[in-house]
Specification:
CATH class of the largest domain: Alpha Beta
CATH architecture of the largest domain: 3-Layer(aba) Sandwich
CATH superfamily of the largest domain: Glycogen Phosphorylase B
Strand order of the largest sheet: 5-3-1-6-7-8-9
Structural class: alpha/beta
Radius of gyration: 21 Å
Largest sheet: 7 strands, parallel
Number of strands: 15
Low-confidence stretches: none
Shape: globular
Strand content: 5-15%
Number of domains: 2
Oligomer: single chain
Distance between the termini: 8 Å
Mean pLDDT: 91
CATH topology of the largest domain: Rossmann fold
Helix content: 40-55%
């Protein structure tokens, strides 16, 4: 067939992260595709456009604007852009009303909790790239950690019921589901009753490289947003128990609580630009990953710099960390058990047991080019 007419749907562009990087790669695969999202902020739009132009096989011209949004963007702006959370109950309906029907040969959706609702706006085949079904909707323990108080639990519980209903309503309309890890594929099977293809998300391994001379320093690193589900608290407690230096790189609503847990062995650097992050990856003894991630971009970035990773052996780490080659899996369990296992591993850790070149070689399998090739192949199957 002629060049297919593809539309891309994303839930919101409010801050740039891993899922927005996925959309930028979609824009490289289909440079003329419109990109729909109920909520869009100028800063995030600019970041996605810049990422889509970077290393693109068919660069997007600066004057081209593929983004289309809804009234929720205006509502978000009226609040001063402080938080998108109050608008989330309106997102499913906005997605179901997107102008998709009869215009496109296929729709590619980037899904966290609501985006598959766009499948109800079109009769075209819909391919869903699933970062995860809404964990806060399906997993009560995860929701309890994220809610933050009784009022938050009530609100998130009500939104979770709506998200579950929406996901199940849209599931039969999906022509193909792509999961970003084996763990997410299992959730899609258990929660939606659907099979899926695993395609790992893109990681900017070309930007994250080892230093000219491997020079591991005497500290461990936690990097990422300081939010409950990433479990930086377990890394801090493990560092105290092990008497090991820990650098915490990142910021978020959990920071004040984390600082109250930390001892003198832990240093908080806050959010930092890529050059600082790369320097930390290059010098740390190992990256700590005590939370269960859907996939986990940070450990792959660290490995691209030659740093091994100590991770709980669950979730995305089962796909990204190869024991004995690029790091180790530590057995999961209750919080005290995980802290004890990380502390033991930190005390015994020998960075010389890992070859930085081999660690980086493993990280290269998660490149953006590999992602684009695999995604394009999957979408081609629904167009034939």
């Amino acid at each position: 067939m002629n060049d297919p007419r593809i539309a891309v749907v994303h839930e919101r562009f409010t801050e740039y992260g891993g899922s927005e990087a996925v959309v930028a790669e979609f824009m490289k695969i289909w440079p003329g595709a419109p990109v729909f999202a109920p909520i869009l902020t100028p800063g995030c739009r600019a970041a996605v456009r810049a990422a889509a132009r970077d290393e693109s096989p068919d660069p997007i011209a600066p004057q081209d604007d593929p983004f289309h949004t809804t009234w929720l963007t205006r509502a978000h702006a009226l609040t001063g852009g402080r938080s998108h959370a109050p608008l989330l109950p309106f997102v499913p309906r906005a997605l179901r009303r997107l102008p998709l029907d009869g215009r496109y040969d296929a729709v590619v959706v980037s899904h966290h909790a609501f985006a598959t609702q766009a499948a109800l706006a079109t009769n075209a085949p819909v391919v869903a790239y699933v970062h995860s079904p809404a964990r806060w909707a399906w997993d009560p323990a995860f929701r309890a950690r994220e809610a933050g108080g009784r009022a938050g639990q009530f609100a998130l519980g009500a939104l979770g019921r709506a998200a579950r209903r929406g996901e199940l309503r849209a599931a039969p309309r999906l022509a193909h589901v792509i999961a970003n890890s084996r763990a997410v594929s299992e959730r899609v099977r258990d929660w939606w009753g659907l099979d899926s293809t695993v395609v790992h998300p893109p990681v900017r391994v070309g930007r994250f490289t080892p230093g000219p001379v491997p020079d591991r320093d005497d500290f461990f690193l936690f990097a990422g947003r300081l939010v409950p589900y990433k479990r930086p608290d377990l890394a801090i407690r493990a560092a105290r128990q092990a008497g090991a230096r820990l650098v915490v790189l990142g910021d978020g609503r959990f920071r004040t609580h984390l600082e109250s847990l930390a001892g003198p062995e832990t240093t908080f650097l806050g959010a930092a630009p890529d050059p600082v992050l790369i320097d930390m990856y290059r010098r740390c003894r190992a990256l700590l990953m005590p939370g269960v991630e859907d996939f986990g971009i940070v450990p792959v970035e660290a490995m691209a710099c030659g740093a091994p990773v100590l991770a709980v052996g669950a979730g995305g780490a089962l796909d990204t960390v190869r024991p004995g080659l690029s790091g180790e899996h530590l057995e999961s369990g209750d919080d005290s058990a995980v802290v004890s296992r990380f502390a033991t591993a930190m005390r015994a850790f020998d960075p010389l047991a890992y070859d930085p070149a081999a660690v980086r070689g493993h990280a290269l399998t998660f490149s953006p080019a590999a992602f684009r090739t695999r995604i394009a192949a999957v979408v081609a199957t629904v167009l034939t």
